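Reviewers of the previous submission asked for a worked example of the structure-prediction workflow described in the proposal, so we include one complete record here. The input consisted solely of the amino acid sequence. No template or homolog information was supplied to the procedure at any stage.
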Amino acid sequence: MESDPEGAYTLAYDAARRALAAVLQNQGLRATSRGGHTAVYEAVRAQPDPPLGSVLRPFNRMRVRRNEVEYRSSEAPAVTSAEVAADVAKVEALIELAEKAIPNMPRY
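From that input alone, the workflow returned the following structure tokens.
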């Protein structure tokens, strides 16, 4: 994290996105590329099961921040190691919740 906070942030975000995609895949669903990463977030958020609620909430902010990092918004401040550490904790919570929810979710 210290030597490449932007890379660490991107990797953490990708882990969160893949956890959400796994929730969809478990239900036989797949977000299309047309909506990009927003489609994954919106599709999981619309699911009645599992109720990801407050654990899911930070994902959209992280998506926006990751876009600033990836596409180099000149207005965005540099990513710090502290920011990465704070969001890694949120990613870990999201992954943990997905791991618990997937075995108990109905399949469509």
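The first helix runs from residue 5 to 26. We consider this example representative of the routine output the project will generate in years two and three.
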